[in-house]
Amino acid sequence: MLRRLPIALLLFAALAFGCAHSGVAPAPAPVSGPEAAAAPPLIVVSFDGFRWDYLDLYPTPNLRRLAREGVHAERLLPSFPTKTFPNHYTLVTGLYPEHHGIVSNTMGDERFQALFSLSIREEVGAGRWWEGEPIWVTAERQGRIATVFFWPGSEAEIQGIRPTFWMPYDPEADDVERLEQALSWLDRPEGERPDLILIYFDEPDGAGHRSGPLSDETREQVVRVDGLAARLRAGLEARGLFDAVDLLVVSDHGMAEVAPERTIVLEEYLDLDEVRVLDPSTMALLWPAPGQLDATLAALSGAHPHLHVARREEMPERLHYRAHPRIAPLVAWADPGWLIYTTHAERERRQQSVTRGNHGYDPAAPEMHAILIGHGPSFRRDFTLPAVENVDLYELLCALLGLEPAPNDGDLARVAPLLTPEAAARAASRGDRAP
Ligand code: AMP
Ligand code: ZN
Ligand code: ZN
Q1: In whole angstroms, what is the distance from residue 148 CA to residue 43 CA?
Q2: Among 319, 334, 354, which residue terminates a domain?
């Protein structure tokens, strides 16, 4: 059993580990010129699995107030597969999963013969899986200080760089403590204060899985995380920073209702000796044995009215899910509300713990859509865009921080309308002013 550690101790452990680790590149000295001093800190908060319409379905006065006083996308459109790790990493890299390499929560890489999953701690912290450049690496490279509380990827050294402050993921860490710890970094003297803070909360995703998106438990968790937004605001106000800080609240995906009778069991159609199935859930990665690809594809094509299957290179273009070698030669995905199991035995076992919600489906499904709210001096007031793609967030973060972005799949022009004319003009000329 993992003992629950106070967050300060965890942070200490992370720092101590970081110091002892000879491969950690020293953080570049903070920029101390007028440019850096003028830039307000940027805070990005993620509420895992916060579906776009929870804002209206449930009492969320604090998030709605932020949106009203700032900007809001009615829907943040996730990337395929609409799971936690691929989408959190898309949000901070501006890359589709086919370009950043986190192609699912569970995946394999034939090149280094290894398996990645959320529960294999050494692999989650191994930089070889995390391709592209997350915003904290972009920031640190360009002389800024980044603090990351639990964002997927933040435990790995990526391109030889880590955020100045980070800590190993602890799902038991108290949310209020997380928030207070993040706020306390703002009390550091100029030159030590983070320019960028990212904070991850694992609700309301947990409640959505356990009880479904339309449930009392999910309502309770949504109300609770809305309270965290109020607490964040109060903490910033107490420091006289609320109007100086640019704040973004996002989520990675939504949640769809699932039911025990809506299941697809692959062993009914496949000889499982001839195909390896990875991450069966709302989608699955299929690795057929040599010479078995065509037969596997034929066996699954049209096998079930709610199951789709395609060769990697024939995946629908709009899903942007072809390029990476970690994407299996065959990809199967279910219609929203349906779940894929490998065997009946697995179905029975997994259904012991009742689940009423899941995600990972086609990003076009409205149930998968997420949230985006922005507030602060760089954002317009009371302005709403109908939809923003989550690949565009990285460009927006770079614009807010005055950073030169790494190559990515996003487009600043699509999110620039969220910015004040002054902030948009600054972003347009950032190439000249990046430190
Ligand atoms: P999903 O399976 O897509 O619903 O993933 C959500 C789960 O990811 C949550 O239950 C979190 O506890 C877990 N999670 C989030 N960040 C991390 C991390 N850095 N390491 C391991 N698990 C994580
Ligand atoms: Zn998630
Ligand atoms: Zn989830």
Answers
A1: 10
A2: 354
- Judge whether 232 and 66 are in contact, CB under 8 Å: no
Q: Virtual CA dihedral for 271, 277, 281, 284, nearest 10 degrees?
A: -100
- Which phi-psi region, left, alpha or beta, contains residue 129 (left: φ > 0; alpha: ψ -120 to 50)? alpha
With the most atoms of ligand 1 within 8 angstroms of its CB, the residue from 89, 92, 118 to mutate is 118
Q: What is the pLDDT of residues 5-55, one digit of tens each?
A: 333 333 323 332 232 222 223 333 333 333 444 467 999 999 999 999 999
Question: What atom in ligand 1 is closest to the CA of residue 281?
Answer: 2
Alpha carbon of 224 to ligand 2 centroid (Å): 17
What is the H or E stretch that residue 330 is in?
A: strand 330-334
Instruction: Supply 376's token pair.
Output: 């602060």
Residue 287 host element (H or E): strand 283-288
Q: What is the CATH number of the domain that holds 55?
A: 3.40.720.10
What are 386-430's pLDDT values in tens digits? 999 999 999 999 999 999 999 999 999 999 999 999 999 988 886
Instruction: List residues with catalytic annotation.
Output: 84
Q: Among 336, 354, 372, where does a domain finish?
A: 354
Rounded Cα distance between 334 and 338, Å, is 6
Global confidence as pTM: 0.92
Its domain, for residue 397, covers 7-255+364-428
